[in-house]
Amino acid sequence: MLEPVNIAFESLNFATLAPMLIAIVGALTILVVDLAKGGLNKSLYVMISLLFLILDFGALTDFAGMFKENGTMLGFFDVMMMDGLAILSQLIIVGASMLFIPLALTSKRFHEFSYPEFFSLFMFMIAGFQFMVATDNLILIFVGLETASLALYTLIALHNRNKSFEAAVKYFTMGALAAGFYAFGSMIFYALSGSVELNQIKDVFEADGYANIGYILVGVVFLLASFAFKLSMVPFHTWTPDVYEGSSAALAGYMSIVPKIAAFVVTMRIFEFLIHSGVVWLEVVLYAGVVITMTAANIWALVQTDVKRMLAYSSISHAGFVMAAIMIGTTQANTALFLYWILFTFTNLGAFTMLWVSRQKKLPAGQSSDHSFDKFSGMVKTMPVAALMMGLFMLSLAGLPPFGLFWGKVYMIASAVSAGYTVLAFIMALNSAIAGYYYIKVIVYMFMKEPTNENNYMINASLSLKTIIGIAAFATIFAVFAVSPLMEFISVLVYNSGF
After folding, report:
1. Whether the predicted pLDDT of 84 surpasses 90
2. Helices in 231-330 by DSSP H: which ranges?
3. pLDDT at 366 over 60
4. Domain ranges of the chain
5. Summary mean pLDDT of the chain
């Protein structure tokens, strides 16, 4: 007869659940407030969401301090793992969310923000992403991924346009396929190792000398395909432009940042130990995927006539660019990945917010797109400040010095050169030059063309939206002063996590 096992409450370390629980309590609070008294102004729900996000961010900041002193913290039967990667990625997730949620306070009323459920689903989605990155347990990763994804599908559909429903269905279909791939890959890893903990799987594979390499590669194929969907890697990218087009510009900007940083962290945990073990096949596939994704997405972006679709292809290219860090697998490359994505967060969210302020509830007759290039024609003459802001974000995305993303690109390319990937570094630099063309195309329309009838900007420019644009612009311009302390902060967290 088995003897009962006594587990000390302190050993469960429930504090590791605190950041996720804060987001969940925030979501439930919004629902309870709505049940108690319906029809309240959306500003209240924005404030409640912001309050809990600030508490969440504060809890993560405390964890960052504790990590520097005590190292990785395990909790809840060692399922939760608050290491440097988990803390850093959650800071980006919650920080980007704090910038996104005030975008609901537009000057005009939009369908999705009239529902308290929008804000509750948003908080549940954040909790899902946080669970996803704060563990090395394949089951909890899956639970977090699906929790976040199911909430995100609904948020897209709430935009309430024909293309929004189409986008939600496409995203759901692709997400279901990716979930299936993930389940198959995880099942194979479990069958080979008898564990769903990535650290234990790594130990078993190394102890066996990768004797079952054929089966391991089959599992890797399924897992790689799953996260290639989430990261929009070519050829698994086909859903991205349509989903971004069907979503609101604000949500599209958010989708280009937060789901991807969560997917990057999980991909890093799963694949980097395999790369370091000398699985050459995986390195070759990742190398090809990185190069094809960067190059093909840039070429497709060149021929777009809609700025939002152009930015969608651009975000695919950026994801390919950053994926190179996981393939390189050095501490320098992983540090550069987080620096790049923090700078990208401000710049890309600023660019999509500029599209959001011009969002029209009903498209004028004969206008099939809300964000055509013609809409930007001659903007410098009609709205010079808006033109300057949009031009700033385009120059930063193109990687021109001294603006924010230039420093991210420099560190990424430097990490490739340091690891001996000189050809890859050249391809990355070449793709940055190609991308400059379609970003500068927006600037040409704004500064060198005459205004058209479509030029109707800053329609929804409330104080909150102007504030977010101002924060993004400030971070983009003065990033040069933050790069050094950011790199120091990131490198400590990444290095001490064993990456």
Report:
1. no
2. 239-246, 249-255, 258-276, 280-302, 307-328
3. no
4. 12-358+373-495
5. 86
